[in-house]
Write a structure and sequence with these properties.
Elements: E1 4-6, E2 20-22, E3 26-28, H1 47-64, E4 72-79, H2 84-98, E5 105-109, E6 120-127
Parallel strand pairs: 4-5
Antiparallel strand pairs: 1-2, 3-6, 4-6
């Protein structure tokens, strides 16, 4: 099932994502966390390194359901920081991993995330193939 990314002519095209996505047969992922194979938070204090591991873990969750990043119709990126530079650092890693597939996404700075030392989490909605 293909993902149809929606562009809105009345809204600016100066954002690095589509404004909406249309799909049926959806997968909703839990938030991917920067946990290593042993279940420990990795790269404590390093937003970009945590974001990279989070994206690796998100890809694994999508793969387990038969999906990939190109099947994502919406993502949400959470960064435990009030510093805009931290948010942008995480965002650059996430956007790079999605490549040309610029599905809608929301980037949020939050007070805290679930694991001690966790700075980044990404959840996604994907269309099942």
């Amino acid at each position: 099932m293909p993902v149809e990314l929606v562009r809105a002519a009345a809204l600016t095209d100066e954002v690095p994502y589509a404004y909406g996505a249309i799909a049926r047969g959806l997968l909703f992922t839990a938030g991917a966390c920067p946990l290593d194979a042993g279940g420990e938070v990795a790269h404590v204090g390093d937003v970009a390194a945590q974001a990279a591991l989070v994206m690796d873990n998100l890809v694994e969750a999508l793969t387990a359901a038969g999906c990939g990043l190109s099947d994502v119709v919406k993502s949400t990126v959470y960064v435990a920081s009030a510093d805009r530079e931290d948010l942008v650092s995480a965002w650059h890693v996430v956007r790079e991993r999605f490549g040309e597939h610029d599905a809608p996404s929301t980037l949020l700075g939050v007070a805290a995330l679930g694991f001690e030392g966790q700075l980044v989490e990404v959840e996604a909605v994907a269309v099942l193939p």
